[in-house]
Fold this sequence. Notes:
Elements: E1 13-17, E2 26-28, E3 31-35, H1 44-54, E4 58-60, E5 63-64, E6 69-73, H2 79-100, E7 119-127, H3 128-131, E8 154-162, E9 166-171, H4 191-200, H5 205-212, H6 220-234, H7 242-257, H8 265-277, H9 283-300, H10 311-315, H11 320-329, H12 336-360, H13 370-381, H14 388-394, H15 396-404, H16 415-430, H17 438-449, H18 456-474, H19 497-508, H20 511-522
Helix pairs in contact: 2-6, 5-12, 6-7, 7-9, 7-12, 8-9, 13-15, 13-16, 15-19, 16-17, 16-18, 16-19, 17-18, 18-19
Amino acid sequence: MPVSRTKQKRPANFAILPYLKTSEPVYIFDLVFRSIKDTNHLSPSDKGRLSEISSLFFLAHHLRITDMVYVTLPDTGDEEIRRKQQKQLSVAQILIGYLYTSPSTNGEPFYSFEHSSIYFFDPTMVSEYALESSERTENLWPPDSRPIYNRRYDTPGYTVHLNFTSSFFVASGSRIYPPAHRIWLNSSQDLRTELLMYSVNARNWAIIEFFKNIEDNDSEFSTRVINALEWYNRSASINAAEEIALLSVAIGLETLLGLEQGDGFTKRFKEAVQILIGPTPQLGEWIEQFYKARSKIVHHGKWHTLMYQTRESLSNKSEKKKIKKDMEQGTGHGALVTHGRRVFRLCVNAILSGAMTAEQTRLGSWFINNQERLINICKILNQTEKTAPQRLVDIRQEVLDLHEFWAGSEKIIELETLVAAGKLIAKTYVETNPRIPNNIRSSIEQIINTSNKVDIAQRLDNFKSLAEDIQKWKKDNSFLRTMQGRELRLFKMKEDSISILRVFLEYAAMPHIELKALTEALSPPQ
């Protein structure tokens, strides 16, 4: 008898945040951040591997960390999915890092940049020479836990990717110490509680909305904001000297603002920050001192003061000697970089509030006419490297916008483009192999096969008839509705591809389209 062979499930990969903990699961994108104590959903083999991995982390000396956060990453063998997982982890780390580097009451970050470190474990065979060295070292690895190597001097282990910027090798019995010696653990810290409190704070609504939509937005603006946040997070590194911290905030601000370099940059920088934050006493003085320090560090490697001096101190001649002494001793009204972190976060809120409000009110969509949307629909549907269902998903917002932003496009619409787009949607829908009634299938095929020489009005009538047939079949009039002043929400297009076709057909049957077709039919040829 033939032996039945079931496809074996690949063991999961894990990412560890050893210096944070959480009381309950936290959901960011497709990722679930869990406490190391929460393992009931894992298979026995995955649970054993997670236990082995988590046992490698030490805070210092012989102090093993017992409570941490982990993410399970299913290994599908698909490289594209793996890249997506790593991108989500990287962006999630930026969000978590930004959360924990918020200035505390004394102005210093609540946690360091290193506290949000992510270690991604990639199973592999590890060479003895990557784990042990005989050069100027004494091997104190306990004999009972020392790796056993094969004839090729390899042992099962992991390539560990730290923050996806550096990597090293470990095996069972290895020790992983923090990337900075002064890392501490806080008993009150709880990722779930703190992320929840951050998200419900009214001041943070825009950045929360930004991260909610970041996966569907790879624009230059989104990339710039992410890069700026990453530079800001680096300013809170335990290992960063104050000059480096100041430069990191400066780079973050310059990246965020997107200003062109060159003559007059300092003036443009000052104006941009003041416009974003609004009239604030002595903000201009801080900007000038901060940017002067930034320029001196960049061009001369150092500056004699990294402290902020108030306007009153600078204007009081009797205090000039005292100010000079303060500068030399590093005293003043707070560090320039401390104020810089506050300014950066306010600028982020201001920029993202404007961007998210413009997006929610669909401002950009008012600048695009429906002829452009029809052309874009055709371009997307002709991308045959993507599957038919994915192409339909990719046009869903364009189809919605045809309904919501039709006003002003009546004279611009080219009916041939409209019919071509409808034919492409119908053809793509058929490629999804849908289960539909025979009469609807026949109507779709008629649209696909009708010659372009047929009268345009007749082809539009075919669209209208098909829309009516689908409406009778579905018996659902509820999913086409306009929400005034808000984004049009029609249906779950990812799950209901025929709705994309139907809504497009109903747009093609709108009165102004019928009137345009009739007018063109009665007009004498040019």
